[in-house]
Known about the structure:
This protein is an alpha+beta fold. The protein has a five-stranded mixed β-sheet with strand order 2-4-5-7-6. A two-stranded antiparallel sheet has the order 1-3. Helix 3 runs antiparallel to helix 4. The termini are far apart.
Amino acid sequence: ADHLNMLVGNLLDMSRIESGALKPKRxxxxxxxxxxxxLARMRHSTDEHNLEVNVPESLPFVPVDYVQMEQVFTNLVSxxxxxxxxxxxxxxxxxxxxxxxxxxxxxxxxxVPPEHLERIFDKFYRITAADRVTGTGLGLSICxxxxxxxGGRIWAENIxxxxxxxxxLPLTWEGxxxxxxxxxxxNE
Length: 188
């Protein structure tokens, strides 16, 4: 039932993306909170891998749809879990780059032939292990639709020990910079 529910959800999300009806409900959110929520929900799935998370609490707020960004992280981590061998490292890190936040989810799974790096974000496009890895081939295309709906960019690249998914998100929203966190006066 859960698998069928996820499949129907993915198909609905894909049709919303294709029709232009996927509109992020943006609010100023805390990226480490989104990542933490996803990893807490996936904790049983990630048991056989080593997670390294470097998403600093000091990052500014990001103007994103919380639920949609949870889906992006869930899809990217799930993809890494499917293709990376057990007991390997999956890394999630975020850094500031100009007026964007740059996120990378990397794994020590097989590299992707360079000619396929762009196509892996196409619907139903699968390169390796389609016979032993479950899924519909929609997860990465949904990620692309969500990131682009937020004004960002997503891409994959081979790295020395595997594959990395990268995306950027703008830090401005309708021309406004992120709000500042209130100072904690008790510790000063």
